[in-house]
Specification:
Length: about 250
């Protein structure tokens, strides 16, 4: 069982974002961490590998050299080796990342690819689905519970009406939801071992992938400050304010 799993570097959701004078995110003022959904994906990959024959977990990040930190974190959790595809994060869109991962899959030939269902910075929820389409593989998204039995995988996935159970054959693409597992903390021995585990760096051109974005960000703006609330004296006044001022009725 060979598993390819992603570990995207994202801005810490607890950091307060600010914009520079030219309308870009001031990355000097924020902290970074592994995407929480990717942490769940790495944990699930390790759990599946623990019950598999001849397992290998390969963790992948697409982005700047700074993403090495997130890769080392995944290695310390228990992944076997890492690959960094170095690219300018500001000019990457979901399609480019999916094509990079598709090229890596053809190079690595994994039995399973696991991704977080979305990244908490862009919230696009597109890469897993695009990857499955490019590979022509079955996919199971928003995984709530996963069971692998030989070449078959049964997945309970979260949907609006509750939980849906699907069965797919391997190789396949899996995306993880929030309640799938609780990611482990990296132990001190794991951190020490991670320093010696292989980490390869590639360029998109090494994979034959053109990362010219199909989606361009035109501008960024902070949301307007919320106006202070006010008290009303009656239900009629409230209804009138909602209709004429807030325009929600």
């Amino acid at each position: 069982m060979k598993i390819l799993v992603t570990a995207k570097r994202v801005t810490d959701y607890e950091s307060k974002l600010t914009l520079t004078k030219d309308g870009r995110i001031d990355y000097d003022a924020v902290d970074f961490k592994m995407n929480p959904f990717c942490e769940i994906a790495v944990e699930e990959a390790i759990r599946i590998a623990e019950d598999a024959d001849n397992p290998q977990v390969v963790v992948v990040a697409v982005g700047s050299d700074d993403a090495t930190k997130e890769l080392r974190t995944a290695l310390a959790m228990g992944a076997d080796r890492a690959i960094l595809v170095e690219a300018d994060e500001e000019h990457l869109d979901s399609d480019a990342v999916a094509r990079i991962l598709a090229a890596l899959v053809k190079k690595e030939s994994p039995d399973l690819v696991i991704l977080g269902k979305q990244a908490v910075d862009g919230d696009n929820n597109q890469v897993g689905q695009l990857l499955a389409e490019y590979l022509g593989w079955p996919q199971a998204t928003f995984a709530y519970k996963v069971q692998v039995d030989g070449n078959n995988m049964t997945v309970q996935r979260e949907v609006d009406g509750g939980v849906e159970t699907v069965e797919v054959s391997l190789p396949a693409v899996l995306t993880t939801d929030l309640r799938l597992n609780e990611p482990r903390y990296a132990s001190l021995p794991g951190i020490m071992k991670a320093k010696k585990k292989p980490l390869d760096t590639l360029d998109p051109s090494d994979l034959g992938v053109d990362i010219t974005p199909k989606v361009q960000t035109v501008s960024l703006a902070l949301p307007p400050k919320r106006a202070a609330g006010r008290l009303v004296k009656s239900v009629d006044e409230l209804v009138a304010a909602l209709a004429t001022e807030a325009k929600v009725l």
